[in-house]
Write a structure and sequence with these properties.
It is a single chain. The chain is α/β, with parallel strands linked by helices. It is built from 3 helices and 3 strands, in the order E-H-E-H-E-H. Strands 1-2-3 form a 3-stranded parallel beta sheet, with helices on both faces. Strand 1, helix 1 and strand 2 form a beta-alpha-beta unit. Helix 1 packs parallel to helix 2.
Length: 75
């Protein structure tokens, strides 16, 4: 990704509190800029999902897909 000048990673998927948060933290530790698509991540544990989103919002951009798409379109 670095050779292609990619520095922002957009995260979607399942297991917000496990796979998404772990991957976003790893990406940040490796110098990437994680963006979490709030309405495109999920978990079978609603409380853990919400806690994870709140934790990640302290460190990364956590935004709905409409806002992310709007910002991408401005480029």
């Amino acid at each position: 990704m670095r050779s292609r000048k990619i520095n922002t990673l957009i995260f979607t998927g399942i297991a917000t509190e496990i796979g998404i948060e772990s991957s976003a933290r790893d990406a940040a530790n490796r110098g990437f800029y994680p963006v979490i698509v709030e309405d495109c991540v999920s978990s079978s544990d609603k409380d853990a999902h919400e806690r994870s989103l709140k934790n990640m919002a302290k460190l990364f951009v956590v935004e709905k897909s409409s806002g992310i798409i709007e910002n991408i379109d401005k480029r």
